[in-house]
UniProtKB/TrEMBL annotation:
It is found in: Cell membrane. It is a multi-pass membrane protein. Keywords: Cell membrane, Membrane, Transferase, Transmembrane, Transmembrane helix. A 1,2-diacyl-sn-glycero-3-phospho-(1'-sn-glycerol) binds at R136. Belongs to the Lgt family. This is Phosphatidylglycerol--prolipoprotein diacylglyceryl transferase. It comes from the Bacteria. GO terms for cellular component: plasma membrane. One of its GO terms (molecular function) is phosphatidylglycerol-prolipoprotein diacylglyceryl transferase activity. Residues 294-343 are annotated as: Disordered. Its EC number is 2.5.1.145. It comes from Paenibacillus graminis. Residues 307-319 have a biased composition (Low complexity). The chain crosses the membrane at residues 20-38, 50-73, 93-110, 209-226, 269-287.
């Protein structure tokens, strides 16, 4: 018999207040994303305080959006236990909801600071993937967002995973797909791809951010079907068959879809949203190119329409610098006898 070696989700406690791995890992992911944004922002002379304030506003907005999105699809589980809506440390957030919340916050914040939306989100795109890449390990600790049942040999011999991951994937009475790991690695590849792409001269404003959506959504479409906890709804059977058909190449690689209770739904919402996001992002790139909307390239300077007030303040050192003494005009010398004008 195999005994699960599940990681304690609580790191430590401060008095009666427990500190969860989940929140700690999400915090590390947010800081990693902030670091990447600040480093890239230096190329455009954007102060790091701008990104730090953005993080302070964006993270709560993202968490609220992620929780609202999740609870909306799980309302039957929360309507009689409304207090549980706020227990986010128990898990239960949706990345697409987080993106919606963060984008709404970004639109308001960037406008307030006078920066163009598309230029700033381009800078932030790799940081978003970094946050997601690290944040998925919070699901690992909580033993959530995992996939369908697999053999132990699949994890050890085919994927060559270390013991601490294999052991943590023993949930209930079986081993499961480490979908958190699949998505984390996909995000890592995406970071590298975006960093290469943003150095290309042909890239226009907004296209790095839209490429982020395309890349992430491709991975999410295929990984989502492996999971057993997908948010879902009952939809058209033809649409469900279409989505399953698009996913079928995964079967060639030896993967099987995770169980989805037919009574709960037949269409995974994240799969459908991922597909719609890919199509919408591609169309938006084409339309913006055809209409000439993205006049700026990624590498062009970024200028705020609302310069910081500090820029208009005379530096203290200059304020105390004594003014130069006025120049006194010296009288012109009189002509000497040797220099008398000749008649």
């Amino acid at each position: 018999m195999f005994f699960s070696l599940a990681i304690d989700p609580i790191v430590f406690s401060i008095g009666s207040l427990p500190v969860h791995w989940y929140g700690l890992i999400l915090g590390v992911g947010a800081l990693a994303g902030l670091f990447l944004a600040i480093q890239e922002g230096k190329r455009f002379n954007i102060p790091q305080e701008f990104f730090m304030d953005m993080l302070l506003l964006g993270v709560p907005s993202a968490i609220i959006g992620a929780r609202i999105y999740f609870v909306a699809f799980k309302w039957e589980d929360y309507k009689d236990n409304f207090v549980d809506v706020f227990k986010i440390w128990n898990g239960g957030i949706a990345i697409y909801g987080a993106l919606i919340g963060a984008i709404i916050c970004g639109i308001i914040y960037f406008r307030y600071k006078g920066y163009p939306f598309w230029r700033i989100v381009d800078i932030c795109a790799p940081g978003l993937l970094a946050g997601q890449m690290i944040g998925r390990w919070g699901n690992f600790v909580n033993q959530e967002a995992y996939g369908g049942v697999v053999e132990e040999s699949f994890l050890r011999d085919k994927l060559h995973l270390p013991d601490f991951i294999v052991n943590q994937m023993y949930i209930g009475d079986a081993f499961h797909h480490p979908t958190f790991l699949y998505e984390s690695l996909w995000s890592l590849l995406g970071i590298l791809l975006l960093m290469v792409l943003r150095r290309q001269k042909f890239v226009r404003a907004g296209e790095i951010f839209l490429s982020y959506f395309i890349w992430y959504s491709i991975g999410r479409f295929f990984i989502e079907a492996l999971r057993t906890d997908s948010l879902a709804f009952k939809g058209n059977s033809g649409l469900a068959s279409f989505l399953n058909g698009l996913w079928s190449p995964m079967k060639w690689l030896g993967f099987e879809q995770g169980y989805l209770d037919p009574a709960y739904g037949n269409i995974r919402s994240s799969q459908l949203l991922a597909l719609l996001t890919i199509v919408a992002a591609i169309i938006l790139i084409i339309v913006r190119r055809v209409t000439g909307q993205p006049k700026d390239h990624y590498s062009d300077p970024i200028v705020s329409t609302k310069p910081a007030a500090a820029d208009a303040v005379v530096p203290e050192s200059a304020a105390h610098t004594p003014q130069s003494a006025p120049q006194v005009r010296q009288p012109e010398p009189e002509n000497t006898p040797d220099e008398l004008p000749k008649e």
